[in-house]
Amino acid sequence: MADAPRIVRDPATMRAEVIANRTAGRRIGFVPTMGALHAGHCSLVERAAAECDDVVVSVFVNPTQFGPGEDYARYPRSLEADAALVGRLGVRWIHAPLADDIYPPGAATRVVVDGPATPFEGRARPGHFTGVATVVCRLFQAVPADVAYFGAKDWQQTLVVRRMVRDLGLPIEIVVCPTVREPDGLAMSSRNAYLDPDERFRAVALFESLEAATAAWERGAEVAVIERAMRAALVARGVAVDYASIVDSETLGSPVVGREAVALVAGRVGATRLIDNRVLAGRGSSA
Length: 287
Ligand code: PAF
Hints:
Pantoate--beta-alanine Ligase, Chain: A,domain 2; three-stranded antiparallel sheet; 38% helix
């Protein structure tokens, strides 16, 4: 049986451990999370464990990526259960800093990404991606790993992180792993725990809208027609739609002939906001 992961609170201690092990020739993989770990996170850890000698998981519910009135206070926190879960997968360290370790009192520095951070989630949740970029940058200082793993479920977040890493020349490789789904297609998310049975039933509409979009895209349907159909599928199950769009998978601008696109959906089921996406192979017409 694997040893229990060591829980390291202090970022400087965590950094020293990672540097010592990398200096000794070990390849270190990093999975940043906000905890409440589920099978989606486990798939990231498994990929990291397969590709690296040691794995660090960070567990930090980052206050700066939640807007006023969002679910920061009630976001599930379960460090012991998280440690037990990823301990079974061979994780060596859990980095669980306190808020003051990440944001020292009086902290005045933020990482602001434009471009991919602007539309969709950026518009729906002002300041969200600044919070994400700032904390990820800070976590990359505490965990100077060879490679970090992110889930494709937060498609726009992966673009924002990759852009930040490129623009700031951060010495870390970013790997994006496929979304893990429940048997009925609902994407795994820590926020699924908020759903009551009726909401859980209705939440599958996000997946269904993406299935319909994929089929229509492959048939060559017009983008505007597909977007209307996605929205209709969501509304039919009582989802309050934020957006249902098909865009270029890298730029998030209009789809381009022959380039990969992505269908993005976001909406509220009861009080819970959910997002999902599906990458679509490039096709001959972008209409
Ligand atoms: O995807 C998440 O869980 C968070 O946005 C992240 C990347 C850990 C930053 O807080």
